[in-house]
Amino acid sequence: MAFGFELLLKKDPHSQARAGVIHTPHGPIPTPVFAPVGTQATVKTVSPKELRELGASLILANTYHLYLRPGPDTIADLGGLHGFMGWDGPIMTDSGGFQVFSLARLRAVDVTGVTFRSHLDGSEHLLTPEKAIEIQEKLGADIILCLDECPEPLDYDYNVQALERTHHWAERCKQAHTRHDQALFGIVQGGAFADLRRQSAEFITALDFAGYSIGGLSVGEPKEVMHEMLEATVPLLPEDKPRHLLGVGSPEDIFEGVDRGIDIFDCALPTRIGRNGAVFTRPGRLNLRNARYADDPAPIEEGCDCYTCRYFSRAYLRHLIMAKEILGLRLATLHNLHFMLNLLREIREAILAGTFAVLKKEFLTHYEIIPHEARQRSREARSRRQEARSREQEE
Ligand SMILES: [Zn+2]
């Protein structure tokens, strides 16, 4: 089946929330949807069979990583991403732009494209819009993205220049796109500025893409800014095309995004925090490394029907994580993915039943949100670790 989007319910009576189905050559994606991130053509520690059992209907893989290793030709020869990684469901790839700007050593950005050094071996590469499409056509995902620039959100003048490049690159991506079994999404940028966001939404939608992604949010700005940017952007996107919020998010961000009309979310958060021993529960995040769980016979969350909670105690999980046993990372990841995928199912049912506002209020009343400062600190620590790693590898 070719790509298409069907809106089942245009709007929740109390918000912009909507439920639909995206049709792809690898099956349907009920929306709103959360896509686990499989950076290196694997959702870390989880098999495709387990993803299927968890109810994942879409995963996102990272073009930048797969371009550098093992390379798009190798993946194309081995059946594209679907054949290569043994996942026959829908896949989305990003354009590689975000990682080039956040992970690689940047050399130069101009209208041609972006020159960077690999964080793996320091080799130099030029990523152009045409190249980003060529790589993604070889990888063969169902949904692919235009190359864009994701600048620091608060510098207005730089955002104006970057946006001009992003728009020019979008036109070239559209020109370069040849595989019609793949849906190409345009990306709206514009930093933390409502006028730039509106300008970008108008420009990108005029190019008529199969769907639209909103990039450059949840990159360290306060949550209110993200909400404001969504409110400036989403109403300008066509109602009959899917809308994707790149790199988001946490449970609270997903509720706010759905409320403002977003259909697709992708984020490494559940898998990344799981590997650090942090798990989602209805009252908020809980860190299994905490000594208070050393003798705790309870599951992560009472009433959770995931494999981890059915069979294992917090005390056992804490023991595995403290002992750096791989099973501990896996079990925490399985619970977190179950939590997110289940939450999206609940949200979708609530939209269809007209009770989304009730569910949102109920959830957010009980869920303790991580404060902005703490999120900033962990973001900074993460980027310091990444930088240290890339320096090590270059040396
Ligand atoms: Zn669980």
What does this protein structure show overall?
The protein is an alpha/beta fold. Helices cover 45% and strands 17% of the residues. The protein contains 16 helices and 16 strands. The chain has helices at 48-54, 63-68, 72-77, 80-85, 97-102, 129-139, 156-176, 194-206, 223-233, 251-259, 269-275, 307-311, 314-322, 326-353, 356-366, 372-394; strands spanning 4-9, 19-24, 27-31, 33-36, 59-61, 91-93, 105-109, 114-117, 124-127, 143-145, 183-188, 211-214, 243-245, 264-267, 278-281, 284-287. A 6-stranded parallel sheet has the order 4-14-13-12-11-10. A 3-stranded antiparallel sheet has the order 1-2-3. α7 (156-176) links the parallel β10 (143-145) and β11. It is globular. The mean pLDDT is 94. The structure holds zinc ion (ZN).
